[in-house]
Amino acid sequence: MAFISTGYNPAKPMENRITDIGPKDYHDFYPPVIANNKGKWSHHEILEPGVLVHVGDSGDEVYTVRVGGCRLMSTSHINEICDIADKHCDGYVRFTTRNNIEFMVDSKDKVEPLKNDLASRKFAGGSNKFPIGGTGAGVTNIVHTQGWIHCHTPATDASGTVKATMDTLFDDFQQMRLPAQLRVSMACCLNMCGAVHCSDIAILGYHRKPPMLDHEYLDKVCEIPLAVAACPTAAIKPSKQTLANGTEVKSVEVKNERCMYCGNCYTMCPSMPLADTEGDGIVLMAGGKVSNRISDPKFSKVVVAFLPNEMPRWPSMTDAIKKIVNAYSNGANKYERLGDWAERIGWEKFFSACELDFTHHLIDDFRQQAYMSWRQTTNFKF
Amino acid sequence: MAKHETPFLDELENGPWPSFVSDLKQQAEVRAKNEKGVEFQIPQDCVDDLLGVVELSYKHGRTHWKHGGIVGVFGYGGGVIGRYCDQPKLFPGVEHFHTMRVNQPCGKYYSTEYLRQLTELWDFRGSGVTNMHGATGDIILLGTTTPQLEEVFWTLTHDFGQDLGGSGSNLRTPADCLGQSRCEYSCYDTSALCHFLTNEYQDELHRPAFPYKFKFKFDGCPNCCVASIARSDMSFIGTWKDDIRIDQDAVNKYVEKDPAYPANAGAHKGRDWGPFDIKKEVLDLCPTHCMKFENKKLTINTEHCTRCMHCINVMPRALKIGKETGLSILCGAKAPILDGAQMGSLLVPFVEVNADNDYEAITEIIENIWDWWMEEGKNRERLGELIMRQGFQKLLEVTGIEAQPQHVAYPRTNPYIFWKEDEVPGGWERDVDEYRKHHLR
Fold it and tell me: Span of the secretion signal (chain A) (predicted)?
């Protein structure tokens, strides 16, 4: 493994350095039919799950075949995507905002060969490499985070929970039988990188134990005021601690009964780890959306306060998700997003329809906004 | 023969959804065989060790990455996320496992020529593992060692004409929906604006100068396919000011259930919802009830339309966005930490999108907001939290925007109203003795 230099000279690091050139120009990457018809599209249709056609004012057509991607992907897999795009799509491909992959062709007769090629490709373990779907009123890809693959603050794994969930909801990725599109997202801690706070169903990694305090190192590696300021409930205060050897050190104290385990102090201070095998697990949220269609955008609400981390397939979590999807599918009107349905029938009926327990954890108790979430009316259902 | 046993992860090779485990195993094998004769610059078995460390996390139910990590390239204050394994003896291949964020092209369109260049570089100097893409939009190159960072950056900039993305307390990598490239709803060229502003603010993106992170996202219409309203501090959402364009013949094709005119472009084909009913599916669901269908003619009372997109989404062949297009700007979206989650709040109901004057009307608003937040924002305070702390009125003041009813969902319910002293006749300097002349103690 001999080091091979590009020409970068570590002795003169600023020599020949190129900076601030930004992203590649998107014009370089448009398939000709896209470049020719940009801004002049007339309409579109979803021909079947995973297959769209867009028709230009010119009469030109572009057919898009959408396939699932697992976001975490190897260069081998990307090269295989390139092979497919070279073979069928003149060397162009795109990715969606939900990390699906879209192959585009400029005539209808190119669709079937592309679809057949995509459907035929499997991983050694048997899973589909390029399942076609993710359009219309179904379940599409799960926007998710790093988990145990790469992050230091997670309370669960992202890739694994997503794989388990997508296997469970796979039929709905390849169908369009729901009242509206159902967006599932996942974040492995409540920093909520991604879309957990605004999705129809959201999987959230959660801790349930206050941080441990590594007093010996804390003042050496942390800016104590930042750790104090990191706490949304003011559970942390500066303190002096005496170590076993009698040395007095600056550190912090955590009032455990005020801590709700958000982990933000650990983000700021490496001496406050809180991950825990039994303590950590999953919160499920539901009813969020970002579109302005009919109703305003909505935040997702907590509907299951805790499910354990059950590696490798999280069966309690996938069961609960399946119950929510089924109840929504059976109960909602056409075009109703999950949150629209829950608000129409009332959250009390949401819990009974989904067969979910309602516990005290689900009642908001964070500052002034909590009041707005309680029920100031006699309008409720038994 | 795999380097580590992975009984937990092996279970995730089953099932129909593409298995990241199978893909990583495939990659470990490709590296082990090295049929292309790559002179790997980081351990050849790094993907085996990645599988090993993740398997250990599945066993423990805890992450095995050390806290934080500060690495990067000279000249920039961000773009690379440093990461070190907390069991380097067991998994030396991932002792260093830094992520490089690479600024994606707008709309995430690619040529295979470009992607192959990138994979060749990453096989050579990194793990060959990626995220396509990070939630903010970047191409994520997942896993390399510190000495490789400058080398990868050199190749990206010198050979590919490609820069890093953002990380840290700065402007993060902007992202857009695919916009006019392949959507008839898009009210402006999201990619053109996204690309322009990304280049315009390269310094703010690469060198952290802000109190905290700041994100731009660009949605072509209120359907919000890139979720700007929830996931960017400044959200740019396309809209229009004039009438929805109605093709009455096409409306009647929908009403007559012409198979070439499926409701919602066929999004509900997987279930029998009964025949299309324009009253039930469009008129009655219109949030402002501003539509009528009489004598085979659809009318929309534009004055009352809030442009929610529902009718256009249901009948895309018959209803088109208006011609007088622009965008709305919403501010302050953020995840819960610290003071609770926020969605963007409407600041500018309508602004023109004019590439000919370098989007002057938009950059002025951005820069006014930055001037304020950079001066007043506390350490690690998102724009949304500064707005909460100093008030929405302050945001209006710094951007020079007049308060209007569109700025609120409803007026305040408490009467704790501040006045500026000069709004009140006589000001606040008063003499209690003068008062006592008329009001005895």
Answer: none
To probe the interface with B, which of A291, A313, A314 has the most B CB atoms within 10 Å?
A: A291
Let me know if residue B437 belongs to a domain.
no
Q: Is residue A381 part of a domain?
A: no
Is A202 a domain residue?
yes
ipTM score assigned to the predicted complex: 0.98
DSSP string, A245-290: TS-EEEEEEE-GGG-----HHHHH-TT-----TTT-EEEEEE--B-
pLDDT band at A1 (very low <50, low <70, confident <90, very high): confident
Whole-model pTM: value is: 0.98
Chain A residues touching B71 at Cβ < 8 A:
none
Residues B133 and B226 reside in one and the same domain:
no
- In this structure, the answer to whether residues A286 and A201 fall within a common structural domain is yes
Distance from B401 to chain A by nearest Cα, in Å? 24
Size of chain B in residues: 441
Residues B307 and B257 in one domain: yes
Distance CA(A166)–CA(A158), nearest Å, equals 12
Domain extent for B154: 7-167
Contact check, Cβ <8 Å, A92/B74 = no
Which residues form the domain of A311? 158-208+277-373
Please give the Cα distance from B237 to B245 (Å, whole number).
Answer: 20
Nearest to A73 among B23, B83, B227 (CB): B23
Contact in structure between B376 and B387 (CB atoms under 8 Å)? no
Residues B272 and B133 in one domain: no
Quick: pLDDT tens for B58-111.
Answer: 999 999 999 999 999 999 999 999 999 999 999 999 999 999 999 999 999 999
Q: Do A4 and B21 touch (CB under 8 A)?
A: no
Report whether A177 contacts B22 (CB < 8 A): no
Interface of B with A in 122-161 (CB under 8 A): 122-123, 128-133, 135, 142-143, 147, 150-151, 153-155, 157-158, 160-161
- b/e string for B364-393 if b means 16 or more Cβ within 10 A? ebbebbbebbeeebeebbbbbbbbbebebe
Please state, in angstroms and rounded to a whole number, the distance separating the CA atoms of residues A246 and A238: 19
> pLDDT per residue over B319-367, tens digit each?
999 999 999 999 999 999 999 999 999 999 999 999 999 999 999 999 9
- For residue B119, give both structure tokens: 């994979």
Structure confidence by residue, pLDDT tens digits, A56-106: 999 999 999 999 999 999 999 999 999 999 999 999 999 999 999 999 999
Rounded Cα distance, B188 and B211, in Å: 31
- Judge whether B5 is closer than 8 Å to chain A, CB to CB: no
Strand-pairing partners, residue A101, are A67, A95
* Per-residue model confidence as pLDDT tens digits over A225-279: 999 999 999 999 999 999 999 999 999 999 999 999 999 999 999 999 999 999 9
Residue B418 lies in a domain: no
Q: Which of A57, A66, A74, A185 to mutate to test the interface with B (most CBs of B within 10 A)?
A: A74
Q: In a mutagenesis test of the A interface, which of B6, B12, B94, B203 is the best target, namely the one with the most A β-carbons within 10 Å? A: B12
Query: Which residues on B lie below 8 Å from A24 (Cβ)?
Result: 105, 114, 160-162
Q: Is residue A290 domain-resident?
A: yes
Domain end position, chosen among B167, B185, B208: B167
Q: Are residues B35 and B131 in the same domain?
A: yes
Q: List, as ranges, residues 113-172 from A with C-beta within 8 Å of B.
A: 123-131, 135-138, 143, 145, 147-154, 157, 159-160, 163-164, 166-167, 170
Q: Would the CB atoms of A123 and B23 count as touching at under 8 Å?
A: yes
User: Taking CB atoms and an 8 Å cut-off, how many pairs form between chains A and B?
Assistant: 453
| Together in a domain, A113 and A261 | no
Same domain, A236 and A284: no
Report CB contact under 8 Å: A6, B224: no
Residue B425 lies in a domain: no
Question: CB-based contact (8 Å) between A38 and chain B?
Answer: yes
A369 and A254 within one domain: no
